[in-house]
Amino acid sequence: MIVLAIETSCDETACAIVKDGRDVLSNIISSQAELFEKYGGVVPEIASRKHMEYMIPVVSEAMQTAGIGFGDVDAVAVTKGPGLVGALLAGISLAKGIAMAMEKPLIGVNHLEGHIAANYIGWPELEPPFLCLLVSGGHSHILRVDDYTDIKVLGRTRDDAAGEAFDKIARAIGLGYPGGPKVDAHAAMGNRSAYDLPRTKFKDNPYDFSFSGLKTAVLNIANNSMQKDGAINVDDICASFQYTVARVLVENTMEAADETGVRTIVVAGGVAANSGLRREMAAECFAHGYKLHFPPLELCTDNAAMIGSAAYFHLIKGESDDYSLNAVPSLKLGV
Ligand code: KG4
Ligand code: ZN
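That is the input. Now the predicted structure with zinc ion docked in place:
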């Protein structure tokens, strides 16, 4: 089954051609991240307009790279949420147009399921059940994936998402947007024990996260050292912050694995690219005897290949959407 997948939930305009859920024939991404660097974050209206501009060339390139024509496409998949409403609508409109013209099934995909599915592409042998730590710019979840389309939320962030915390810290210490990769690079040169940062643990749900206290502590350290010395040690701050976030993510995930007895751990979302998280998670999984999967680096952040993969597992169950498909900006998982 050949799926043409479109992803426009935030600031990446992406189209991919995916065969049978795991075989990526092409994966084209046009990122607006550089454009938004000067604004320090995504400007929703500009993102929607840029999607309108880039979408057709991106789809054409995906078709050309895959060496297929529209007649070869069996279904059209598109991210329906969560995301920025105008950005989502741009992709959905195009997906409907292609599906209607080609008289092929249309399916709306949950972006978060897409992030999980990036691992099915990276690891052809991977099958549910597994536990998934899903950490992106907008979400931080611990999930129990019982089947490809059966996902339960065990824990979630009560305030900032992990990626959002990276982005906010980076902006505050002058590293710019998107912050995650920049903090990661500076952390490699710093001392992770330079600052002892707070970690929040909830008694009523040990799998939930909170990163706002940690973020505030880092901002205070940065402000205080600016006032005292007129400078901050960016490398040490990044290393301490990254280590603390990674430890919190890893410890909650290990607790969930120990208690549920699920022995395969999968990490997904943009923060899955983080080298500190990869290191800490690998060490703990090795110590506990758990299997561990991270997506390939290029599939951690937003892309359409992951949407094509997630769509496949719904399509083979006979699911599809009609042309009333609409954007759902705050679409949830597992409800
Ligand atoms: O999954 P994604 O592309 O978009 C959302 O669905 O949100 O994730 C983007 C997030 C951003 O917050 C970005 O700073 C973060 O992933 N990120 C990283 C790294 N690469 C991307 N965070 C930490 N370390 C990285 N290497
Ligand atoms: Zn994403």
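The chain has a mean pLDDT of 96.
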